[in-house]
Amino acid sequence: MASGVHGGQGTGTDGLYENTLEPVGPAHWAPAGEHQLLKAANGLLVAALRGDIDLATATGLRLWLDSLLRLDAPGHVVDLRPVAFIDSTGLSVLLRFRGRVLGAERGFALLCDAGQRRLLHAHGTLHVLEPTATLAEALVRAAAGG
């Protein structure tokens, strides 16, 4: 060790690895209660998502959507129309949920407005998610195994 150097690298005495962080309390994920779960007459589940879907809310939404897979339903419709904002993290959550629904051999459909369709197109996921414009279309697609 060189003269005049105190402590070794990584020992906490050289100032490189000192912990100066302070706790800020628990993370405040958007509660799943902000989203609404509806059941159609044919047993399909409709998840009407609300608010922002982004890095800050993705974990809570992922957990909530995963819990829907435990419910006995022939298919799932995700309604994005009430969503104010969605980023690539949110789209990843939707793609993951779609994959899990289809993997469980259930129907899936996405319902969104024209602005959200443009976002899906720009993101390159329009052809994968194949959104519908009306709830009636979404219910038919999910019932058909969409």
How would you explain this protein's 3D organization?
This is Anti-sigma factor antagonist. It comes from Streptomyces aquilus. InterPro entries: STAS_dom, STAS_dom_sf. It is a single chain. With 146 residues, this protein is α/β, with parallel strands linked by helices. Helix content is 34%, strand content 17%. Strands 1-2-4-6 form a four-stranded mixed β-sheet, with helices on both faces. Strands 3-5 form a two-stranded parallel ribbon. Helix 1 packs parallel to helix 2. The radius of gyration is 22 Å and the shape is globular. The relative contact order is 0.14. The N terminus is likely disordered.
Topology, element by element:
Layout: E1 36-39, E2 45-48, E3 51-53, H1 58-68, E4 75-79, E5 83-86, H2 88-103, E6 107-111, H3 114-123, H4 126-129, H5 135-143
Parallel strand pairs: 2-4, 3-5, 4-6
Antiparallel strand pairs: 1-2
Helix pairs in contact: 1-2
Count of distinct structural domains: 1
* Rg (CA only): 22 Å
What global shape is seen? globular
- Number-wise, the strands total 6
Which structural class is indicated by helix and strand composition?
alpha/beta
Q: Which terms would index this structure?
A:
Transcription Regulator spoIIAA, 6 strands, disordered N terminus, 5 helices, two-stranded parallel ribbon, alpha/beta
Describe this structure in a few short sentences.
This protein has 146 residues and is α/β, with parallel strands linked by helices.
